[in-house]
Amino acid sequence: MTVEARVTINGSKAAIWAAITNIESAADTISGIESIEVLERPASGLVGLKWRETRTLFGKPATSEKWITDAVENEYYRTKAEDRGFVFLCTKRISESTGGITLTESHESKPQGFVATLMSIPMGVLFKSVGKRAVLQDLNDIKAAVEKEGSTAA
Known about the structure:
Layout: E1 2-9, H1 13-21, H2 26-29, E2 33-40, E3 50-57, E4 60-72, E5 76-83, E6 86-97, E7 100-111, H3 114-153
């Protein structure tokens, strides 16, 4: 199952990239994140960065370990997380359009095995609506931070 959302941001690709790759401070920018603990840092670049992220999901704290698997500066990065028989893949992508700079985030949940596949059926409808709202909130939080930073830099 895939959930995707996008927002147009009044800012540069570099400013948006700086905001989305500042993983260590993400809890200060994104309201849905309670805390971040960086676990591993790559020698250079983003690929290999691993962290533990705690969010509130369905009224309870939920913690997962995520790591960056692929990245192209000022364009996109992909993360992976594994939990309870699922693999979760997320891509944040920056693109230019006539209306400005668009930040898109997509989440793909892949059940691994029979039990996870059965669990994914009833969860699918619920997660699709809740997940899309959560992703859109994250993007709007990033948008607000980038646009606020841009207005104070001017």
